[in-house]
Structure formats: structure tokens, C-alpha cells
Amino acid sequence: MIDYTRLFKHDVKKNSNMTCLAIILYTLACYAVVILSQIVSLIFISITFPANEQDMRINEYAEKTSNSAWSTMAGILVGLVIIYLFSRRENVKSLIFSRKRKMTPQVFFMLLLVFMMPQVPSSYLSTFIESGFNMFGLTTQSDLEWATGQSTSFSMFIYASFFAPVCEEIVYRGYVMRNMQRYGKSFAIIFSSALFGIMHGNIHQVLFAFVIGLVLGYTAMEYSIKWSIALHMINNFVFGDLLDGILNLILPEQAANVISWLILVALMFGGIVVLIVKRKEIKQYFSTLNFKNKRMYGWAFTTPAFIIFFIFSMYQMISSISRL
User: Fold this and answer.
1) CA spacing 20 to 30 A to 135: which of 118, 166, 218, 290?
2) What is the pTM assigned to this prediction?
3) 282: how many CB neighbours lie within 10 A of its CB?
4) Closest CA to 180 of 303, 40, 281
């Protein structure tokens, strides 16, 4: 007799492992290009300048590149080639830009409100996390500044506002989610959101990224990835750089912070209202999802590639913790 459960388990573990392997190779490619560009630059400095000037030039280069994202974007483009090859191999390339429903301005606005809803709770959680570490003489300030800070250069602005949203959506809501869709929409959305959250390697962003990943996953699954890209861009561009930039330009810093905070609070309550008003439709949608085979999550989250990816991201989080 054929053991279909065993065959299904093997299929889930195999595809989850291959998907995580693709994400690992994508990540390594990004880091490799950044490191290679640094090595090439250091070699150029050592060849071009005399020994007594090299330390000064290296310090100038380090200061310049600390606010630059050009090499990071180049690395991501190389990583996307790897994702493309995996998507062709697993026959999901054609699914990445598929859609089921037609988007309307009203639906998009409601999705935006729900998408922005976790911003305020996440901010309070970050404050709580930082205070907890401070009690033990530690700080996560570098991760907090990275998670909440504005772009400090033109390349960082391009990367954070436009480049990262497009590429991250293609990788996580495109390749990962569509590749896992064969096991059900709920599994695909949750699995891709988990990888998206872990990928950030930032103690202040992991949970937040997972939660908004669920909204992005639903949007891409039902309405097309172009709308999840739009939501992601609005978050990074409008609320990450543009809004604070405009407010700080026309108002004193304290007043700008208050206005920005009030806008986020209003969006949070707007998202709560949407969830309340649409509770029946949401309940009906959840009833169509397959949550029955919960063992799939255990199979997927214990594959070797997932564990390696998780450990690497945990190392990133731990290494960012420093003493006060």
C-alpha cells in the first residue's frame, strides 16, 4: 500500500528546503557582491596611493560607503538571477504576476489602513525591547536606528523607497509564496511571511515584518504582486522618508514628530475599523483556507536550509546587541 502521507511529507520538506536554499543563495550573492566591491576598492587604494596616504583614503572610503547602497543593489540584482533560475526550475515563474480579483481604490485604501495598523504597536514594542536590554546593561540601538531612521544618502533613498520594495516582493511574495501555493494559500502566505520576517535579521523588525508580510501576502495572492509592491513602496517611501522629510522642513522637530505620530495613530484606528466592518468577509475568507494539515509547518520549519537561514538571521540579531 502506498503511504500518501509520507509522500506528501517528503514533497513538502523537499520543496521547503529548496525554497530556503534559494533564499540562502540569494542572500549570499548579495553579501558576496558587497564584499567583492570592498576588496576591489581596497586593492585600488593600495595600488593608486602611497603607503602614508592609504589609511586616510581607507577611512574616507569607509565613511563614504557607510551611507551608500549601490553595491547592495548590485548584489540584489545578482541574487535575483538566482531566484529567476529557481523559479524556472520549479515552474512558478508564470504565477508570480497572476491575480484572482480586480483591485479597486476602495479596497486598496482599506488594505493600506490594515497594512499600516501595526506601526504604532511595533513602535511601543521596540521601546519595550530596548528598555528590557537596558536593564541588563545592553542596547539594540543600532538595530532600532536602522529600523526607524530616514535615508541618509541618495542611494539609500532609492534603495529603501523603490528598489527594496520591488525586489523583496518579487522574492518573497513572488517566488517563495507562489512556490508554496501548491500546499494551500494559507501555508504559502504564512511560510513566505515567516521567511520575510526572519530575513530582516533585526530584533525590532522581525515580528513587524512577519505581520505586514501577511497583509502583503494576501494582497499579492488575491490582487497581484503589483499591489503588494505598491503597499510596500508607500510604507517605505511615503511614511519612511517623504512624510517626515516634509514635516521636518515646514515644522519644528517636536511638532513634526507629534504630527507624524498622530497620522500613524489615525491609520491604526482606521485599520481597526476596517477589520471590524469587514469581519464577516474576513471570517468567510478564512473559512476557505486550509489550516487542517498543521503538520506542514513543522515539516517546513525543520528542513536543513530553513534552520541554516534561521541561525544566520539570529546571528545577525545577536551581533547587533552591544553594551551601553
Assistant:
1) 118
2) 0.93
3) 14
4) 303
User: Which segments of the chain are extended strands (E)?
Assistant: 138-139, 322-323
* Residues paired with 77 in a beta bridge: none
- pLDDT tens for 14-52 read 999 999 999 999 999 999 999 999 898 888 888 887 877
Burial class (CB in 10 A: 0-12, 13-18, 19+), 270: middle
Report the sign of the C-alpha dihedral through residues 84, 86, 90, 95, in that order: negative
Cα gap 33→39, rounded to integer Å: 10
Q: Under 8 Å CB-to-CB from 93, ≥6 apart: which residues? A: 84, 87
Write out the DSSP string of 17-56: HHHHHHHHHHHHHHHHHHHHHHHHHHHHHHHHS-HHHHHH
The amino acid occupying position 186 is S
Whether the per-residue pLDDT at 65 is higher than 90: the answer is: no
Chain centroid, CA 42 distance in Å? 31
226 alpha-carbon distance from chain centroid: 16
- Quick: pLDDT tens for 146-166: 777 777 788 999 999 999 999
Determine which helix (DSSP H) or strand (DSSP E) holds 85, and give its type and residue range. Answer: helix 70-89
What φ, ψ does residue 311 adopt, rounded to 5°? -65, -40
